[in-house]
Amino acid sequence: MGSHRNALVAVVRQELAEARGTARAVLAAAESARNEAQRRKQLIREAYSTCLAQLAEARETARADILRRTRTEAGTLTRNVESLAALYASGAAGTAWRYWTPTEPGRVTRPGLLRIGTIGYDPGDGERRLPALVPLLDHAHVHLAGDRAAADGVIAGLLLRALGTTRPGDVRLTVYDPEQLGGTLAAFAPLGHAGLLSFVGPGGLGPVLDDLVEQICRVNETVLAGEYASLAELTEATAGPRREPWRIIVLLADADLPAGQRAQLDRIARTGVACGVHLLVRGLDLAPHPTVERIEVHPGTATCDSIGDLTVRLDAPPPADRIAGFCRATAERLRQGPPPARFADLEPEKLWLESSAHGLSAPIGDSPDGSLSWVPLGDDPPHALIGGPSGSGKTNLIYAWIGSLAARYDPGELAFYLLDFKEGVSFARFAPGPRDPSWLPQVRLAGINVNGDREFGLAMLRHLGEELRARAQAAKRYEASKLAELRAEDPAGHWPRIVAVIDEFQVLLAGRDALADEAVTLLEDLARRGRSQGIHLVLASQDVSGIEALWGRSGLVGQFTLRIALPKARRILADTNLAAAVIPRFHAVVNADSGADGANHIVRLPDASDRQAWRTLQRKLWHRRPDTCGPPRLFDGDAVPRLPQAYRPSGRVPQAGADIGSSPGAVLGERIDVAARPARLRLGRMPGRNLAVLGTRTDEACDVLAAAALSLAAQGPARFSLVCLDPGAERPAARLVAELPDADWYGPHDLDQFFASLAADGIPHYVLGYALDAAGASWRDRWRALLTDGPEQRIHVLGWWRSVPRLRDALGGPGARLDTIGAWVALDVQGPELSPLSPQPGGPAWYPRARRALFFDRSVHRHPEVIIPYEVNSDHS
Ligand SMILES: Nc1ncnc2c1ncn2[C@@H]1O[C@H](COP(=O)(O)OP(=O)(O)OP(=O)(O)O)[C@@H](O)[C@H]1O
């Protein structure tokens, strides 16, 4: 029994132990699950806080990014809005009163918006203010409600801005102010003197409204005529001035209107804007209409339709004295008559778009109705004659025409050759100068101060004659009968139209000499054949006799079918055509029918002489010039050319063994030609290859000898002997010795030594003789022998004798032969004196002038030519 109980106990114990064991295992598993759960919880917590931190960071970054983008966009928007505001309300339309001045609009500028105050806003970096703009001219009527005084200030401001941004006379004001009888806008009263303002009394509103309604009907019927929706559209389409002024009617009344007037007012509100009639109303109600801009005014602030909910901080009203001053000035300008068109008005919207293949056409001013007046040049009319007394504005007209053409035709389409025979520097502005490096790209040549140098006029005509020949040959090759055909056949060729302008051309033709004869012949040829080859002549003169000189040549003058007469010009138009006698100052009669009655166009000319206006255009064109377009050749008759560096023996001294060349050329001066080439004397191994410089002008004689010597030294090995027999020439001669690589000096007492030194060794030897006429009779034979035999041994005399008789004397007296002098340069020697040295009986037609010399080389010249001795040493003291 006991054992049974014991066994039972053991079993129970056993089971209990197992149960305990199981319970422990369950407990351990639960604990590890709990631990695991807790670890997970911890992990999740940590992940959560990391997420939170990351989210916060991402949110911050996104926020900063959004903020930055907002700021950038706000900045861009601000700038856009600011530039839009500046665009739509530029100048007097938007400037604060403190800086306000009127701004004259361009020819086709449309009215923009007008500032009444400012709007504040914060783009993120502090408050900024933009102009608050409202529409008026061509856009809207304005209706103001609210505070009276503030509204009157806004009205005064709008009126001043509208007047200050339009041309005088383009805006007419009518003010109905029954309570103050005009007192509210009294500062505008000076406009009344010019008929631009009328105050309407208390009983006058009815007729005014009736009149405006009539006005609108008339504009619709006769001006817009169903073709245009508004005056603004018409102005834009015709690119001309406004055909009708704007009319602004200011109504300052609180009382209601009788039914008839109310109906008229409503009609005007509906239809006025298109016809330039604008209402500016304070007090009276205006029926709602898209063209009515409403402004609710409070003291200092306002809200208005076009600005929405934003509050406008109103500008203070313009000061009354400024309004009155402006109105007085406007009235005065109107009293003086309309100003001429502006030079800038002649400029096209886009530069260099035109082709000159079929001709040239450009405006030179405007006609009395304000539209631009275009002047053609091409196959018909081919050439122009401009006339008018001194001071009538010929040069100004030429500037206007050149500027207008140059803005339209690029240098491949148009080339100018310009010559001015009057004193002054009128065409110098087209060439680079010390103060302005720009030039007019189309100008190939400009001659100024040429009144003394008719030879340059002739040189230009000869050059054009060659161009004419070249074009005629090309035309023949391509079987083209005019420039347009040649250009079509040879599209790669360079065939710009050429316009040659000669101001005061009568100077060229004055003097019944060979030069004038050749000039007329060349002019005649150019006038006759230039038409089809695209070469056009524009001749201007103040002198009736000049034009009459042409009249004798009917073949010539008949080609000049375009006539432009300035006030009081005579003989430019047909005898029965008296228009030039009656046109006012700064006007011209343009007549493309040889001056015939009935073909007149009256043109108001702009002021094109203004340097600043000109420079603005020239700079623009200059910056656009193609790389191939170099500066023009400028010939200035008052400037002395310097010996070019290329003709000086600078740098390495030529080697003794270097090639000498068979006939080195001595450079004596600048030729008066288009290319500014040097005049050269070839000194070959032939009899007579000596040079005589003749005259008493020491400086110029020394310069001629120095230029010759230096240019010879620059060409190869040579020896120089300077024989100086006049103390006055010692200084320049000594400077020359210093610059020559190999030179010996001989004074008056060294002549024995000099002649003893002469030995032919094949190297050219140049004897530069100063004042050789002072040598004395005892040396006659030696000099004569040297002149006779020297050249064949390469010993050449380049001598200065102070007169022809003295030269002759030095060579053997009155009967002496001068054939050893193969070339001469004459300074202040009269033509007849040169007859012994000249092939022309009686000597050449030559009247000495300062810094000019006559050069004759028997071996190349038929006639002597005029040259300008180079300045070699600027110090002639
Ligand atoms: N349309 C114009 N508007 C304003 N000023 C002008 C106009 N035309 C000419 N002028 C001015 O009148 C003056 C004389 O003009 P310009 O030199 O062109 O006359 P001109 O006939 O060439 O005289 P001259 O033959 O004596 O040289 C200049 O001061 C010029 O600026």
From TrEMBL:
Keywords from the UniProt entry: ATP-binding, Cell cycle, Cell division, Nucleotide-binding
Example GO biological process: cell division
Keyword NAD: no
Domain of life: Bacteria
Domain FtsK, chain residue ranges per copy: 369-575
Pfam families reported in the protein's UniProt record: FtsK_SpoIIIE
InterPro entries recorded: FtsK/SpoIIIE/SftA, FtsK_dom, P-loop_NTPase
Residue positions binding ATP: G388, P389, S390, G391, S392, G393, K394, T395
GO molecular function: ATP binding; DNA binding
UniProt-listed PANTHER family: DNA TRANSLOCASE FTSK, SPORULATION PROTEIN RELATED
Protein name per UniProt: Cell division protein FtsK
Biological classification of the source: Bacteria, Bacillati, Actinomycetota, Actinomycetes, Micromonosporales
